[in-house]
Amino acid sequence: MTMQLSKPRLRRAEVPDYLLERHGLTVAKATLAKLASVGGGPAMRYCGRIPLYDRTELDRWAEARLSGPVPNTGAREARP
Q1: What letter would DSSP give residue 10?
Q2: Where are the domains positioned within the chain?
Q3: Which regions in the chain score pLDDT beneath 70?
Q4: Which of 10, 58, 60, 76 registers the highest number of CB atoms within 10 A of its CB?
C-alpha cells in the first residue's frame, strides 16, 4: 500500500483548479500572473523562475475575498 502525499505547493497552472475545487472560486491563470506583477494576489515563493503557491496562502487569500454569511443581498458587506 503506497501513501499518496498531496503536494504542499502548487504551480500557477494548478492553482485555478485548486481554488475552484476547494473554495468555489474561478480565477484564471492569466489573472494570477497579472496579480503576481501588480499585487493583490496570493503570496507565492519562487524556485528559480517558477512561482509556487502554498496551499495555506491560497486558502488565506480565498477566504479574504469571500464575504461572511448573509441572510439577504441587502446585508452584504463591501470588500476592498
Answers
A1: E
A2: 9-65
A3: 1-5, 77-80
A4: 58
Residues in CB range of 29: below 8 A, 6 or more apart:
12, 13, 15, 16
Can you give the C-alpha Rg of the chain in angstroms?
Answer: 15
Beta bridge partners of 9: 54
Global confidence as pTM: 0.81
Please give the Cα distance from 52 to 43 (Å, whole number). Answer: 9
Alpha helices in 3-80 (DSSP H): 15-23, 29-38, 55-65
Q: How much is the pLDDT for 5?
A: 58
Whether 48 and 54 have beta carbons less than 8 Å apart is answered as: no
